[in-house]
Design brief:
InterPro entries: NuiA-like (IPR056539)
Pfam family, one: NuiA_2
Mean pLDDT: 85
CATH architecture of the largest domain: 3-Layer(aba) Sandwich
Low-confidence stretches: 21-34
Radius of gyration: 20 Å
Distance between the termini: 46 Å
CATH topology of the largest domain: Nuia
Strand content: 15-25%
Number of helices: 6
Number of strands: 7
Structural class: alpha+beta
CATH superfamily of the largest domain: Nuclease A inhibitor-like
Helix content: 25-40%
Order of helices and strands: HHHEEEHEHHEEE
Shape: elongated
Length: 169
């Protein structure tokens, strides 16, 4: 039979947070969660249209996740939108050549118009620029959808939009 102290040590260990120490690692990597892709550059101003559109917007899937703003500097902004590998590098995917990113048309991604308000906000924030959806697999049933457009030219260019996590089972 175990002593009271042994039993308490057992209970303390069983009740310990399994994520203990994870935040220190995330902070060491620039404040993002481990494995999280880059959605905004440090010090950027999110366009007000995007901030307002994402306030109460959720992507409906097996886990209704909120849409979050995207605002990334992109030097190639004058030439259109990035291809799959360029996009993977831009969002700091750990393996850009093998990211398996798919480019989709917004109408194919949202055939029922459920996210028309977000699409309109991205178009308004980028003054009517062409909008593209990037489907980024995150492992297992997890997928991120990035709805973005290019704004500006040259060194002032950036990708602006929204993203959300989807659980597809």
């Amino acid at each position: 039979m175990a002593s009271d102290d042994d039993y308490m040590a057992f209970l303390d260990k069983a009740n310990r947070d399994p994520n203990e120490g994870v935040m220190a690692t995330a902070t060491a990597r620039g404040g993002r969660e481990v494995g999280e892709l880059k959605a905004t550059d440090v010090g950027v101003r999110i366009p007000p249209e995007i901030a307002e559109a994402t306030r109460d917007a959720f992507y409906v899937s097996d886990a209704d996740e909120p849409f979050v703003p995207v605002c990334l500097a992109w030097d190639e902004g004058g030439k259109g939108l990035p291809d799959e590998e360029e996009f993977a590098s831009l969002i700091q995917h750990p393996d850009p050549p093998n990211a398996d990113i798919e480019i989709q048309d917004p109408a194919d991604w949202d055939p029922r118009g459920q996210y028309a308000g977000l699409l309109d906000a991205v178009r308004k924030a980028t003054k009517g620029a062409d909008v593209r959806v990037y489907r980024v697999p995150r492992g297992g049933a997890r997928v991120e959808y990035w709805l973005v457009a290019s704004e500006g030219r040259g060194k002032e260019a950036r990708l602006v939009g929204v993203k959300a996590l989807a659980i597809e089972s």
